[in-house]
Each structure stands twice: as structure tokens, then as C-alpha cells.
Design brief:
With 585 residues, this protein is an alpha+beta fold. The protein has helices at 5-48, 51-60, 66-76, 78-81, 113-119, 154-204, 219-254, 273-279, 287-293, 300-304, 348-385, 391-420, 432-449, 470-486, 533-538, 545-555, and strands at residues 87-93, 99-102, 134-140, 145-151, 258-263, 268-271, 312-318, 321-330, 339-346, 428-430, 453-459, 466-468, 493-501, 504-511, 559-565, 569-577. The chain has a five-stranded antiparallel β-sheet with strand order 6-5-9-8-7. The chain has a five-stranded mixed β-sheet with strand order 11-13-14-16-15, with helices on one face.
Length: 585
């Protein structure tokens, strides 16, 4: 109860009133005391113990009956000294402080600071507010007598008591008034806040329809208006979210691709019908157990703590069915990933068609080798019988040239078929820098003819042997360097560099050639794709060189990266894993 705003407001009001009354009362009582003490001293010094009065007392002290004369003079000035029932005068011996006469009949006088000062022959007029009396001591007749005036402060205490009573009643009335006004004010503030609280509870329960009545134009009223606006906006936002959620659920329910979502702990967040049909998950099966059963070779922790944000691809085989799975993190704006989403694509038909295509290409390539060999043999034989520069000779040269081109295409297709099936890789440890240096040396003569500068820089002198097919890696290097020379104008330069990077060997070929347009870069590894088709045909290109190079490098567990800008040259990186002589197969 005491934590409510009402009680806090009342407490502040009461504390404020009490604080003000205490401060004012203390100040007022202190000022009254100061006034009485200062007034007593001023009265004694200015109205009573003037120089003439003191001289008169000193002369009386020298008479034959000094005590009687002093009393006569003091009685005559009693009114000026304010003598009454609270204030009296005393005559004391100035040498030993003996009380000689007391107007009020006292037989003893307390030894105050002023009285002790007067006994030393000085005027005792100090103000001591802590003393029980207000007093004034004046020595006369060469300190023979001391005239001592003492006030018991009863009148002061009576006045201060009356003032204190008034302050106490004022405090009581002030507290009562503050409670009354505090209750009114707090209820004025709390009533709309209570309405806001009830409205907020209804909103939390899903009721957005009722609005709060705005009863004022002050800050509370403005808060009410803002709250009503917020409730309306929140209702619209939630309606939009529900609508979008229904759309997404409908899309997920009827899409042919499977979609699964998992929480961080691996439990299933969502699964659509297509995913259920593809994977047939068991009841209570989580991420790790599901994909362990499917032999996907991946765990949820591996995905959650991957630094890369790109999706991870895995191929899953379930019986005769082939499924490609894409794993991606559900990443919020801040903080760690909330979970994992898995998109499943049934690629059984594509796999079957790809297998048929590979078999077709392999069969056609094998079947074409024999007739092409015969065509070339007969063309070469006929060329020897024909006269040079005759029409027949020219035609036979064209047939022979095209047979050579077809032979190269068939050879490249056979190479791709072998790589597709994982055949024809004879792996063994070999020093990669030495191979790169040898390939550059072989290509240097062709570079000189084209007036190009071909340079090799070895930054991997201590590179461990690479385990791979030396001839195939050499084929890749020749292909990449030949391409660089082919598309670099005369006078250009080609730089070949070999470096070691952690557990990888990197061969970089950089040229100053014509470059590759940005829109062509994503397709340069496609089979038979040519950037400059007219120039490629003129130079005898088949469009299979880069495709073969990538297949060979990926068969070794590596990758090729090409960066290029039209008109500024091309940079090719061949990245191979370092196995230190181990078997990479």
C-alpha cells in the first residue's frame, strides 16, 4: 500500500510541512532568545549604567554608610533597570564576592562568568545564551562593591513556550491540511493513471477496442491521448503481423521445398508438410539426432558458432532420393543466433538427369574419337597428294584443322567425364613451387614471341609437399597462364606468384589484359561459355578450359577465385590444401 503514488505524494506533503514548520519554529525561537538577551544588555548599557550613573554609585561607595546610599540610588533607578518579579539587583563585596544585599531576599548568588569578570575590576557584560540567567555586573568604588543585575529568564521562557505552542498547533493544522490536499491531488493524478493501468492490462489480454476518455489537457491528458494512439498503432501492427504470419504459414504449407526451423537447443521450432514428407522425422527427434540418422555430418553447435553468414550446403541421400539441404543461422539484429533454418530441395530428378547427361557425353566422346582419328588420317594423306594452293588442298587443310579442333573438344569432354566420376587422379606428394617454376619456364618462349613479360615470384620456399596429381595441376597452370597470355595485348605483363597461407598453398596469376565484364564473371566456369565468343573461336578456344581447371582443383579439395575488371586485367587465385605428404583422396 505504501508503495503507491498516493502515499508517496502524502508523505512528501507531510514531510514538506513538518520540515518548514521545524525550520521556521527553530529560527523564530532562536531570534526571540537573541532579541531578549541583546535587549537586556542594551538596556543595561544605554539606559542604566551610563557614565554618570556609575560615577554616582562610585561616590556613594565612599560615603560613611555606603550600603545604604547605594540601595537608595538603585531603588531610585529600579524602573530604568526593569526590576520586577523576574529581575532583581544585588550588592556584593568586590574583593571576595560576599553577598551584602539582595533585593529579592536571596542569601546566595550563583557565580556566573560576568560576576567573576567584575571581581577582577572589569565590567561583566558578556551575553551567554546557555546560562540560566541574564546578568550584568558592574564594579564601583575601585572595585569595593559590585552592582549585579540578574534576570531569571522566566518571562523569556513563558514567551518561548507560547510561541512553541502556536508553532505546534500550526504544525498539526498544516499536516492535516497537507493530508487533505495531498489526497485530493494524488487522487486527481492517480485516477487517470489507474485508468491507464486497467487499459494496459486489457491490451495485454488482447483487447484493443476500448479507449480512455481524455478529461484534461495537462500532461496526464496528453499521456492519455498518446496511450490511445499507441494502442491503435499496436493493434494495426499486430493485425499486420498476424496477416503476414498467416501468409508465411500458407506459403510454407504449400511450397514444394521442405523448410524446418530449430531452436538453439536443437528442438523443432517449425516443420512444413514437404519437409515431413522428405525426412519423415520421428517424434521428439532434435536437430543432431535427425541429421545424424541421415548421415549429414553436421551438428547444430557447428552451425551456431560458424563465423560465416552464408548458408552451408549438404547433400543427403535417403534410399533412391537425393536431397540438397541448405543450413542458415536465424540471426537477430544483435546478439547470437536464435536458431537454425533448414531448406530442403528434392534434387532426385536433377541428379538423374545430370547422371544421364554425363553418361551421354562420355559415350559420345568415346564414339567420336575413332571417326575423328580416321577423318584426320585421311585428310593428312590426301594433303600429301594435292598440290599446294589448289582448291582441294585448301579444303583439306580446313577439314584437318576442324578435325584437330573437334579432337581437342572430345579430349576435354573425356577429361571432364573422368573428373565427374572421380577417375584419373594419380595423387602423390610433389613440390608445388618447382612445378609452377617449370610451367612458367615452358610458357616463357610464347610470352617472348608476344612481347609480353612473364615473371615468377616464389614466396613459398619452405612450403611442404602437396599431395595431388602433378600432371593435372600442371594442366590447370598451363590453362590459366595460357588464358592470361591469350587475352593480354602485346607489351603487357603476367605475374605468377606462389605463397603459403596457414594450411593452404596459393598460386596467383595476375595479368594486365582486357579483363572480364562484371556480368560475365558468375558464368565463366560454365562449360562451353565464352566471354568473347568471336575471339575465342579465332584463337581456338573450346570454352571448357576453366571448367576443367575448376573440376581438377575441386577434386584436390581446393578452389579457384577470379577477380577482374574490364580493361584493367584479371587476377586468378588457385588455392590448394597443404597435406604435408598425406593422402587427400
Amino acid at each position: 500500500m505504501f508503495k503507491s503514488i498516493q502515499w508517496k505524494v502524502l508523505t512528501i506533503f507531510i514531510f514538506l510541512v513538518v520540515s518548514v514548520m521545524v525550520v521556521v519554529g527553530t529560527f523564530l525561537l532562536d531570534r526571540i532568545s537573541d532579541y531578549y538577551h541583546d535587549e537586556f544588555r542594551t538596556q543595561m548599557e544605554e539606559a542604566v549604567f551610563t557614565d554618570g550613573f556609575v560615577n554616582q554609585l562610585s561616590n556613594a561607595a565612599k560615603e560613611a554608610a555606603p550600603l545604604t546610599d547605594l540601595r537608595t540610588i538603585l531603588d531610585a533607578h529600579a524602573g530604568r533597570m526593569g526590576i520586577d518579579s523576574y529581575r532583581s539587583y544585588y550588592i556584593l563585596n568586590g574583593q571576595n564576592g560576599e553577598l551584602l544585599f539582595a533585593l529579592d531576599g536571596s542569601t546566595h548568588v550563583e557565580a556566573t562568568q560576568n560576576l567573576m569578570t567584575a571581581m577582577t575590576g572589569r565590567l561583566g557584560n558578556a551575553v551567554d545564551r546557555r546560562s540560566a540567567v541574564m546578568d550584568y555586573a558592574c564594579p564601583v568604588g575601585n572595585n569595593t562593591y559590585i552592582i549585579y543585575i540578574s534576570d531569571s529568564k522566566e518571562e523569556l521562557y513563558a514567551i518561548m513556550e507560547n510561541v512553541f505552542t502556536i508553532i505546534l498547533w500550526g504544525l498539526i493544522l498544516g499536516v492535516a491540511l497537507s493530508i487533505f490536499l495531498g489526497l485530493i491531488l494524488s487522487r486527481t493524478i492517480i485516477a487517470p493513471i489507474a485508468s491507464l493501468k486497467k487499459r494496459a492490462e486489457k491490451i495485454a489480454a488482447g483487447d484493443f477496442d476500448n479507449k480512455i476518455a481524455v478529461r484534461s489537457r495537462d500532461e496526464i491528458g496528453q499521456l492519455t491521448v498518446s496511450f490511445n494512439t499507441m494502442a491503435a498503432d499496436l493493434k494495426r501492427s499486430l493485425d499486420d503481423i498476424v496477416t503476414e504470419k498467416n501468409k508465411v504459414e500458407t506459403i510454407l504449407a504449400y511450397m514444394t521445398d521442405g523448410v524446418m526451423a530449430f531452436y538453439r537447443d536443437g528442438s523443432v521450432m517449425h516443420i512444413n508438410p514437404a519437409a515431413k514428407e522428405m525426412l519423415s522425422p520421428e517424434e521428439g527427434e532434435n536437430f543432431d539426432s535427425l541429421f545424424a540418422r541421415l548421415e549429414a555430418g553436421i551438428t547444430i553447435n557447428t552451425l551456431l558458432y560458424l563465423e560465416q553468414e552464408k548458408a552451408v550446403e549438404k547433400n543427403i541421400t535417403i534410399g533412391e532420393r537425393h536431397i540438397k539441404a541448405f543450413f542458415a543461422k536465424l540471426t537477430p539484429r544483435r546478439g547470437p543466433a536464435d536458431g537454425i533454418v533448414v531448406v530442403l530441395q528434392d534434387i532426385t530428378e536433377q541428379t538423374r538427369m545430370e547422371k544421364s547427361r554425363r553418361e551421354f557425353v562420355a559415350n559420345v566422346s568415346h564414339e567420336l574419337r575413332t571417326p575423328l582419328t580416321n577423318i584426320k588420317s585421311y585428310a593428312e594423306t590426301l594433303l600429301e597428294t594435292e598440290e599446294k594452293d589448289s582448291i582441294g588442298h585448301n579444303f583439306l587443310q580446313v577439314i584437318n584443322s576442324e578435325a584437330d579442333r573437334m579432337t581437342r573438344i572430345v579430349r576435354d569432354l573425356l577429361t571432364l567425364s573422368q573428373l565427374d566420376y572421380g577417375h584419373n587422379l594419380q595423387k602423390a606428394p610433389f613440390p608445388l613451387p618447382a612445378l609452377v617454376r617449370e610451367v612458367v619456364r615452358k610458357q616463357s618462349m610464347a610470352a617472348e614471341k608476344a612481347k609480353q613479360t612473364l615473371t615468377f615470384t616464389d614466396h613459398a620456399a619452405h612450403l611442404p609437399p602437396v599431395n595431388g596429381d602433378r600432371d593435372r595441376i600442371e594442366q590447370v597452370l598451363i590453362n590459366i597462364i595460357s588464358n592470361a597470355m591469350k587475352y593480354t595485348p602485346n607489351g603487357g605483363s603476367i605475374l605468377v606468384d606462389c605463397t603459403a597461407r596457414v594450411s593452404e598453398a596459393v598460386i596467383t596469376v595476375t595479368d594486365t589484359g582486357i579483363g572480364i565484364p562484371k556480368e560475365d564473371l558468375p558464368r565463366i566456369f560454365e562449360r562451353f561459355y565464352r566471354v568473347d565468343k568471336a575471339r575465342s573461336r579465332k584463337m581456338g578456344g573450346t570454352g571448357l578450359g576453366l571448367a576443367i581447371a575448376r573440376e581438377i582443383v575441386e577434386a584436390h579439395g581446393g578452389r579457384i577465385i577470379i577477380e577482374s575488371e574490364k580493361g584493367k586485367g584479371t587476377r586468378v587465385q588457385i588455392i590448394l590444401p597443404i597435406y604435408g605428404g598425406g593422402d587427400s583422396a
